[in-house]
Amino acid sequence: MSASQQAVMRSHRLTPEQVPETVVEQLAPVEREALVARIKRLLEQENATLVAHYYTDSALQELADATGGYVSDSLDMARFGSECPSDTLVVAGVRFMGETAKILNPEKRILMPDLGADCSLDIGCPPEEFSDFCDQHPDRTVVVYANTSAAVKARADWMVTSSIGLDVARHLTERGEKILWAPDKHLGRYIQEQTGADMILWDGACVVHEAFKAEGLAVLLQEHPGAKVLVHPESPAAVIEMADVVGSTTQLIQAVAELDADTFIVATDNGIFHRMRQAAPGKTLLEAPTAGRGATCVSCAHCPWMAMNGLRNLAAVLESGINEIQVDPAIAERARVPIARLLEFARSHKREVLGNNDA
Ligand code: 13P
Ligand code: SF4
Questions:
Q1: 120 touches 14 (CB < 8 A)
Q2: Is residue 23 helix, strand or coil?
Q3: Quick count: other Cβ atoms within 10 Å of Cβ 353?
Q4: Does position 152 have pLDDT exceeding 80, yes or no?
Q5: Structural contact between residues 230 and 256, judged by C-beta atoms closer than 8 angstroms
Q6: Quick one: which atom of ligand 2 is closest to the CA of 269?
Q7: Cβ-contact 306, 207 below 8 angstroms
Q8: What's the rounded Cα separation, in Å, for the pair 300 and 93?
Q9: Where does 28-73 have alpha helices with state H?
Q10: Cα distances (angstroms) measured from residue 264 to each of 223, 238, 273, 300
């Protein structure tokens, strides 16, 4: 990144008070079984489908799998929500995922187990300040990460997720467009380095991924010399540099299943281990270190907001209908444009990659 590009980076760091403690729901086996049975009944009764992110508790992922729901990354959750015929979607994840589902499906009822399930990237990108930033760079195409509020998306030309950010940046660069990127600076820098795109970056970060430490990772690699390193691109550059694979949650799960190695060191939220174990039983999975010299981790490889989703509050929202996601219709209409543009790009890009018209 050039010095002038560095200079226009806006700094929006979170204070520790804005990050809740990670509290994982603890249930006795009897209560867990009773809740699972109750939720299954309620999903049927309400014609509702459960869509969960890979970072949520394994009990929620198992429930989604067992009830015809869906477990995936943020791009595929959005895609599934639009294709699913149910009247109600229950989104177990963080708020931007529920908002995206509502924006794409305004006629559906979208419920979330906890409306306080935020995201540090979303919190660190307030819509008004972001809008000012855009105003200062009217010559740039505004590309925002999915992890933003509906109001921020409403100001964007494109939305991307980590699974497709590189492809969109290459596409825009081929068209001679310069990019204003927000909010994750690590992902932005990674995209810029990989594609050579002309980008200026908002200074946001994910508190979970930013805590991974390259020094600790080097020590762990010495202890496990044959291990492959899998890294989500919200991690710091020094950690990304040590990766064998950098990718979205789905891409990292595929890597565990496909790569010829027995041991993997994984730099992303440890909720993903549930799916990785299913995809590659018998392989050894190690958490990338967040501790060590200079350790700053507050959530230590588990997103505090993802952990707000549990069986108890899932049952409660299905029973009472509370925690429905609402998005101002005028904002939703504008925010739909960058999301729909991405979904259409993903469809046609997949066709291009597969070389046929049926994908
Ligand atoms: P994915 O798009 O890879 O699922 O990532 C979402 C996210 O919040 C990562 O921290
Ligand atoms: Fe947001 Fe980070 Fe949590 Fe993902 S892991 S939802 S980016 S805070």
A1: yes
A2: coil
A3: 10
A4: yes
A5: yes
A6: 5
A7: no
A8: 18
A9: 29-45, 58-66
A10: 12, 18, 11, 18
Q: Is 118 in the pocket of ligand 2 (CB under 6 A)?
A: no
CA of 86 to the centre of ligand 2 (A): 27
Residue 277 CA to ligand 2 centre (angstroms) = 21
| Cis-peptide into 183, omega within 30 deg | yes
Q: Which atom, in ligand 1's list, is nearest to the CA of 252?
A: 3
Handedness of CA 102, 333, 341, 199 (dihedral sign): negative
pLDDT over 90 at 15, yes or no: no
Q: For residue 292, what pLDDT is reported? A: 55
Please work out whether the CB of residue 214 comes within 6 Å of at least one atom of ligand 2. Answer: no
Q: Which region among 3-12, 47-56, 265-274 has the lowest average model confidence (pLDDT)? A: 3-12
| pLDDT at position 6 | 45
- For the segment 181-204, the average pLDDT, to the nearest whole number, is 97
3-state DSSP assignment of residue 210: helix
Amino acid in position 353: V
Place of tokens 């998005």: 327
pTM tops 0.90, yes or no? yes
